[in-house]
Amino acid sequence: MIQTPVEMEPSADIAHQQPILGYETPTGPAGFVRAPIWAIVLVALIVPGLASALMRGTAAAIIKMILLLAVVPLAFLFFGPYWSIVLFPNSRLSETGLYPFLVTCAAVPLLSVVLAVLDRNRMMNRKPDAVESNQLIIKLAAIENLKAIVDIDDVAQSDSHRREFIARSIGRSHCYFAEWNGKVVAYAVLEYRFFENGFISMLYVAAEHRRKGIAAMLVRFLEGACRTPKLFTSTNASNAPMRQLLGKLDFHPSGSIENLDIGDPELIFFTQLKAKVE
User: Fold this and answer.
1) Domains and CATH numbers, the chain
2) β pairing state of 197-205 and 266-272
C-alpha cells in the first residue's frame, strides 16, 4: 500500500526558533547580507568616529578610527556565531545570532574608551624632542640654530647677555624653537631651577608671526616636554597679551615679585600637569 506523505505544520518550538537579525544558522556571515540592521549599526558606529578623526586632520587618527570602528565590529559579526557556539553551546543565543550582536555593541564602545584613555596618557606623558602641526615644527635647539634664533629676537641682536643666555640654554638642552616653512619664528626656554620645578623662563615669537597661535602651541609643547608635575612661568603685569595667553592655557596666578622692574611687578603663573601627578 502506498502512503501519501503528509506535510507537517511546524511546531510551536520550531516556529519559535526563527532567525533573528538575518541569521538562519550559526554558519558564518551569510546572514549579514540579509540583515539591514547590521548596516545601520555599523554606520552608526563608524560615522561619528570617522568624523572626529577627520576633524583632527591626521592620517594616523583616521586609520586608527577605521580599524577600530569597522574591522572590530566586522570581526565580531563574521565570527560571533562560532564564538557563541563555544561559549554558549546550549543557549538559543548561539542559534539566533543575538549573542554576536550584543557582544559587538558592548565591545566596540569599551574598546573605544580604552584606546582613547591609552592614547591620551601617551600624549600627556611624552617627552618629545620635536612635534609637527600643519606647517609648524617645534624642535629641541642645537648650537647650529643659535644664529637663526638670535636673528628673530630684537633684544638679542643688541644685548650680549640675551645672546649668552640663549647659547647657555641651548648647551643645557633647555631651548626649543619653532619653524614655519623652514624659517625660525619663535623660541622658548624650559628650565628646572625654580625650586626644582619646570619654569618657562623665555617665550619669544617674531613680531611678524604673532597672533597666529604659535605661542600657545609652543607652551603646549613645553607642557609635554616638562619633567615635573608642576610648571611655572612669569611675566610683567604690563604684558597683557602674555597674561591673556596664560589664562587661556589654564595657568593660574601664583604670586608676584616686586622691584625687578620698578612699577611693573613680575607676576608668577602656575599649572598642574595632571598626567604627571603620582
Assistant:
1) 12-124 (no CATH), 130-276 (3.40.630.30)
2) unpaired
Quote the pLDDT of residue 77: 54
- H/E element, 210: none
Q: Are 255 and 265 in contact (CB under 8 A)?
A: no
Contact yes or no for 232/198 (Cβ under 8 A): yes
pLDDT tens for each residue of 199-223: 999 999 999 999 889 999 999 999 9
Residue 234's φ and ψ, nearest 5 degrees, are: -150, 160
Tell whether pTM > 0.70. Answer: no
**Runs of H (alpha helix) within the chain:** 12-16, 30-33, 36-56, 59-66, 72-87, 93-96, 98-124, 146-152, 160-171, 214-225, 240-248
User: How far apart are alpha carbons 38 and 80 in whole angstroms?
Assistant: 13
- What does the pLDDT look like over 150-172, one tens digit per residue? 999 999 999 999 999 999 999 99
* Residue range 167-181: mean pLDDT, rounded: 95
**Contact 245/226 with Cβ under 8 angstroms?**
no
How far apart, in Å, are the Cα atoms of 6 and each of 12, 92, 249? 18, 29, 81
Grouping H, G, I as helix, E, B as strand and the rest as coil, residue 185 is strand
Best CA proximity match to 35, nearest among 104, 135, 125, 111: 104
Q: How many CA atoms lie within 13 A of 241 on its CB side?
A: 10
